[in-house]
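Lecture notes, unit on binding sites. The following record was shown on slide 14. It pairs a sequence with FE2/S2 (inorganic) cluster.
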Amino acid sequence: MSSPNLEIVICMGSSCFSRGNKKTLPLIQEYLKEKGLESHVLFKGSHCFGECENGPILKIGDSIYRKVDSSNVQDILEQELVGLNTH
Ligand code: FES
């Protein structure tokens, strides 16, 4: 199996977690499963990014997304993962 070529890090700090990442986490897991991307993406949690005031925070590759919630996470994932090389 090839190693993951993209890293997604979700902030699990208490501020981000309670303000939305608690719901966003399973949405991302479902999305990756649905698209068959689980082996191509390393999805992990992180401690506080030190940006609580801009949270909930999600990091995809080198990009930091702020104020992520269940209504915009799908668009963010589509935008980031569209060019992902899965071969
Ligand atoms: S808890 Fe997410 S940035 Fe602080």
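Take-home: The mean pLDDT is 94.
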